[in-house]
Amino acid sequence: MQLKLFVFTIFLSVFWGEAQELQIKGSVKDSNNNSIAFANVVITSSSKTNFTEGTTTDEYGHFKFNQLVSGIYSLEISYLGYKTENVSLELKKDTTLQTIILEEDPQQLEGVTVIARRPTVKRLVDRLVFNVENSTLSNNNVLDVLKHTPGVIVSDGKITVKHSTPVIYINDKRIHLSINEVQQLLEGTTATNLKSVEVITNPPAKYDAEGGAVINIITSKNIISGYNGSVFGNYKQGSEFPKYFFGTSHFLKTKKLNTYINYNISPKKEYREIEEYVNFFDNNNQVISSWYNDENKVQEYRNHNINANIDYEFNDSNILSFSTNILVSPRENSKTVVKSVTEVLDAFKNLDSIFETSNNSVLETFNFAFSLDYVHQFKKKGEKLSINIHHTNFDSSKFQDVNTIYSFSKNGSPFRENKFQTFTDQIIKLNTGQLDYILPINSTTEFEAGIKVSHIDSNNEITQYIFIDEQREEDLLNSDNFLYDEVNYAAYTSYSKDWKDWSLKTGLRLEYTSSKGNSLSKNKVNKNDYLSFFPSFYLLKKIKDKDEVYIKYNRRIYRPRYSQLNPFKFFYSDNVYTQGDPSLKPEIDDVFTLGYALNKKFTFEAYYRSENNPALEIVFQDNENNKLIYKNTNIDNSISYGLDFSAYTNVIDKWNLYVFSSLFYDDNNFFVLGSPNSLYSNSQWAFYGNMINYFTFMEDRSLEINLSLIYQSKTADAASLNSDRFGVDFDLKKMLWGNRAYISVGIKDIFNKLNYSQRTKYLNQDIFLKSNQENRLFVFGFNYKFGNFNLKESKKEIDIDERDRLGN
Predict the structure, then answer these.
(1) Which CATH number fits the domain that encloses residue 88?
(2) Are 90 and 205 contained in the same domain?
(3) Does position 166 have pLDDT exceeding 60, yes or no?
(4) Domain encompassing residue 742
(5) Full-model pTM
(6) Total Cβ atoms within 10 A of residue 92
């Protein structure tokens, strides 16, 4: 009976709200009638002892205070570079103030000493907000900030949240590049103007159902007309090669025009050594041959990234934006050289033969993305209509030359030589259109709805050549042309409501997908049509002043990457190849989260995730033909659950501490390749821990030292187990010239313990791999800001959810 009464009370509140609540709202502009975003607004009450609340204006200069009672109030409005304004009023009913005009005060900008504060964490009903504006982290790049963001793990070339790859947004605009390209983009984006990072572990219906968690990077708006810019770079020295990174950003704002452009380049050489051991078995599961492979890989690349955005404000209600993201990876600077020596041993571990392989390849990539956005703000505050159209043209080609020499002993005369060449080309065209509508029903209730249509056209070609008597011939058996076409229709609706101590948000997204894959050489067509529902639910309860408890649920989908769908056999050597599967099914996940935030500093989260039909690349040894196959396939299911803990706290003055730890269990269940009736389970309890110490020195706190420790225990990865690893990083940074520049030095992986090994052992599979990379690096970095660097910048990135499928 009590439960029914509680539910009935909630639904009454949804429609009628609380009759005692009063509201004050208003807007802030400068003398040129430009809206001022993120101005500080503080309200105090003369009739209520010790009552003080604060907020900031939104991107349109609006602010509001809810849940007020009748009485006399005073408002103080302030912003750097402007004179402070004060407003007094007697509140008897909901009140909308006249526009508040702030006058410029240039003297405030002269001789300002900026003392950075520590980051803060705020939890909303559907996300965690990591506020870093003017914090010690704002002098880094965005990738460095993610390394310190609660719940985000940046390690081994990957970004993960809850042990899955998140989707990256900037200012609610999704970017979709490969994981390496995403990290390069974030490394080339300064955090000086970063406002906050939103970590959305269970994305609501507004976000595309594709992908896992969402990381939304929010930048501050450029308020004052003027120009500023920056140049930045770093140098990293590993055990083998130096690595460079340079970039520049420029911002210009006039009364109606707001522009941004960023360019960065990363000339790098990466070195990796792999030791691989494989035991091949006969039908009686007895070892008949063992292979030991020693491989050295040098990868050179020089990616060029250009990101630009132009906003034109017709008036306060209408904004038109054009944005572009361009990635160019030229052929002459994108080379990979692989040298390997493989010893073949017989059943008694005696040397049988040796083969040496050289694999030289070049890669060329052009990725052009363009978006056009229109936003209309209605007269009702918060009511907004957004329209987006987008086009991406992706063109990537690769040529490799592979030569293998066979002999019976080291330095012996070759008895056979095999050579082949491969050319691959992938052209993908993406077009999308999207419409979103937001309607505030009242000050505490909001309704959202939207529709989206996407079309993907992919042309994939592989041509392999073999050599017979030194004459090159096309290998028709391993050449193919694969055409892929996909259309996706989506619609969503969302509803949210806030009470004094409760917050509710719920939504539903529907997506209909129709796809067709056509292998021309094999004359095989795969069609797939499906309708999927993606509900989401969030409920948060405030306990006392600083404690919160919350529960979340949503459903997500992972569609196969385009490279996973290609049925080609792409050979790396005579005995190793990778292959996709055009009949791959999409993965559907159900995610539940229960959390408790204590004193706004310490967060405990328990989660459970069920994955149905995960599409993974699994290494499989063909014992009959002595080959290693990296096969893209759907495993049966995967289950993971765990308990996460995070904290940002001050230990003593000038010493802050961030701690994140995760105790989790992964269980992957898959049918063994080659044995479709054998269901195998690979499970493991694991622990991840990250502790970062922030120290500041000198009176103006212009000297910073960060000491971080990372530990990762043994983990389950598809059919394999990865070994544990441990890392210690040290960074020192000195601010110069009144916070206009900085230089930094540091050492990554001081003890060189981040390398790992991987073991795949079940039934007739026995593969051991040991990887050694240049993890220990000496790092030197710099950043210099010019122009009026106190301005707040606005940056936008392209929005097209399918683009992340371009990467592997």
Answers:
(1) 2.60.40.10
(2) no
(3) yes
(4) 120-284+295-410+423-806
(5) 0.78
(6) 9
